Each structure stands twice: as structure tokens, then as C-alpha cells.
Amino acid sequence: MTFFGKIPEKTTLKVGGLPVFGILAVFGGFLIQFTMGAFYSFGNISTYMSSYMRQNGSPNITSADFVTVQSTWGMTQGVVMPLSGFLIARIGNKLSMVAGTFLFSLGCALTTITINKELWMVAATYGFVSAFGQNIALIPTLTSAMKWFPNHKGTAMGIVVGGFGGGSFVFTQIQTQYINPENFKPERIGPNKGYFTEPILLERLPDLLLLLSGIYLVMGLVGALLILQPPNDWFDEIDTKEDPTDYISWKEALKTKEFYILWMTRLCAVLITQVIGGFYKTFGQEFIFDDHYLALVGAISSIFNCSGRLFYGFIMDKSSYKMSMSIESLLLTVLMSTIYVSSLFGVKNDFESPKELCKIFLDFNETIPLTMVSNFTGYAQDNGLNGTTLDVFKSRCSFPETPFMAKAAFAVWVWAIYFTFPGTYSTQPAVTTQTFGHRHGGRIYSFLFSSDIINNLMVATLSNKMLESYGYLGLFMSVSSAGIVAFIITQLYPQNPSPKTIRLKSDDINLKE
Prior knowledge:
By secondary structure, this protein is mainly alpha-helical. It is built from 21 helices and 2 strands. The protein has a two-stranded antiparallel ribbon. Helix 3 (67-91) runs antiparallel to helix 19 (441-448).
């Protein structure tokens, strides 16, 4: 048996009726996806990256600008994933996973250089290079699992892609504990409001990127080495149970309505994913002044991300993709349209006009050095706030204590969304194979990723403008409409799709013509 190829015939060991190498392949796929799942920690690390760049040559960079890096990642995925099937067919599954892991790690390492240059360079390394590696490594993890467990595609997919959702649980904590163990808070006043300025914190960022790069490389390579392809007699056993002509080629699939329903559904789901992933932490910083707590919420959200994939994969196996996606899209609509409510829970308001109060403090801070405070009481009195001292202004305009209900509500909403949106990522690989057959299912599924070009372009170009014009409430409300669109078009999908039903419909159309 070669460790880098396909298992020879007659060597399929089983434990409890399950193939041993199949179990290893699923675990190896989970490990690679877990590594690549660091993508979901971007909402956390981007707050440090934007702060670092502001203090190192790019003072006008904003957190909203950093969505460009995330969108570059997504658009690269949209371009590379449809082509990855052809690349994998040329170089093989094993080499694709090894090369993908190396590039994913390299992109992170190169960012230690580009983070001191320009934002577009960061987008090129952390966005493009890492995403390119990720997308040539992921498809073999999916197809290998489905080949080993063709009768439990939904569950197998749920386990494998659950790693992608669970990865950020570890990486978010590594990032925050390494770079900000002191729990420094971002500035609440002045030109750097909302950004970290502590030199000791910012100096740790390049080292953190190198540390993460090394972890990605080791974990990804181990996962790749665990994945072996089933022997020929395994495929023979499967083929005897199915009509050998019961498959749809990728060219034929591109002519079916089923493909475009899946394509549009993914566009809507990923649009919601990108917005919540990119902005959950900056939204939380608006009313929660505890970096460790926000990092903890992000880390735990990955557990929900992981379990949500298993949950929706299980629903699909027990009912149908149509039922699973309908539930997911409705819940996403409700949750995204109401998440802003979390910022209103139990907000402390001891002053009649807190906004005016803080505005006077900021105006004073910009015009008079804080060391010259002898005339501050008079300054406040002239602005209609008699008897207000500088200490009161500092306490109310710097780090007000966030009530427990606001923290709890924020966590519940974020976790609920992270439990819901991953359903798309576990059910669509399975339903694509169910609909078009397992021979070309992986390649056809990769074409669905082309929708990521559009939704990531939308996030990159519109989110900043939406925030400036309508704030987080407007952004979240508008994005929630994508859930409604996903629900409506999912109702057009067949209840029990298969290659045979597609061929029958195609034959009927040809006869009518």
C-alpha cells in the first residue's frame, strides 16, 4: 500500500461495519477544514490588523476598509474553486491538499511584510494567496469523504465541513491571548476611537502571523497524509448498485435549473456569512468595551458553526435539502434583521443627553490638552452642563460598563446566526452529488463558488457606504433580505432530486421540441 496513493484492492479494513481508512479520510478532511477554518477568525484579527496599519504608515485605514481583504478572499474563491476540479484532476488529490496547505500558510507568513505596506498588498497575501491555497485543498476533502460513505453523504459532509466551522474556536483564542493578554481596550475618544494604540499590543502582530502560519502548515500536512482514496473494488461495489449511466456531466449540469437555484442560494447565504463574519466584532465594540469577551464570543461561535453543519446535514439526511434550506433561510432572515436589538438591551443611561455630553468632552479634548483642565468646569458650564467635572466626562465617554443583558443578547444573536448559516456548506455538497451523481458531483459543486465573486464584490463596495449612511441597523436589515430570496428560490427545488429525474425532464423537453 502506498501512503500517497489509492488503497490496493482487498485491503479495506472495517471496524463496526465502517471502513478504517474511510474514518481516517473523514478525520483528515476535518483536520484540513479545521485549519482552513481560520478564515472565520478574520473578524477578530482584522481589528488588530487595522489598528496596526493606522500606527505604521496608514493613519486613514478603517476597520470597514479591511472588508476588502475578506472580499478578496471570497472573490478569489469564486474564481479558483470552479477551476480547482480541473487542477485536481491533473495533479491528483494528495498533491492538491499538500500544495494548498503550503500556500495557505505562505499567505499568512507573507502578511508580516505587507502589513507594513499598503492595504492592497495585505489583500494580495492574506486574501488572494491564502484563498488560492484553501480552495485547491478543500474539494478533495469533500469528495474523498463522499466516496467512502456514499449512502451517508449529508452526515459525512457535516463532519468534514464541521472542521471549517470549528477552526476559529481555537484560532480566535490564540490570536487574542497572544496579542492582547492584558485585555487592553480600544480608544474611545479622539482620532483613533475604536482602535488599539498600545505599542506592546501592536508589536506582537507580526510574530502572531508567523505563529499562525506554522500551525496551519503542520496541521494541514497531517490532515493531507491521512486521506487515502478507496480501492477500485470499493467503487465496483458501489457501481453495481447504481445505473452506470445515472450521472450528469458538468456541461449538462450548467444547463439545468437545479444548478442555478443552488447557485443563487449560495450567493444569498454567503452574503450574510461575509457581513456577520466581517462586522460582528466591530459592531460589538460599539457597546461592549471588553476585547477578551468579544474574542470569547467569536471563539464560541465556531462551536455553533461546527455543530450547525452537523445539524443541517442530519436534517437533510432525515428529510430533504429543500426542507433543510427552507428552515435555514427563514431563520437567517429573522436573526439578521433583529441582531441590532442586542445593542439596546439594558444600556445604561444616567444622563438626559449622553450624546451631547460626550460631544462636549470630545470638542474640549480636541481644542484643549487634557493636562490643562483648570477651566474645564467653566467650559462645561458655558455649554449648559453646570457642575460637571472632567472625571464625570471621562467615565461616561471612555469605557462605560456594559450591562450583562447587552453582553448576553449580543452573544446569543451571534451564536444563533453562526449556528444557522453553515447549513448551506454541509448540505450543498451533498445535494449536488445527489442531484447530479457522484462521478462529477465535486466538480459541479465547485462551480457554485462562482457566485462568491458577486456577493463578495457587493460586500466590498456597498458595506462601507451602508454603514456611513444608515449605520449597523441599515446594514443588517438590508442584508437580511437575502434570506428571503434564498427561501423563495429554494421552494423551486425538487423534493427528491436525482440524475434520473433530470434526464427524464430533459427527454420530455426534447420530445416536445
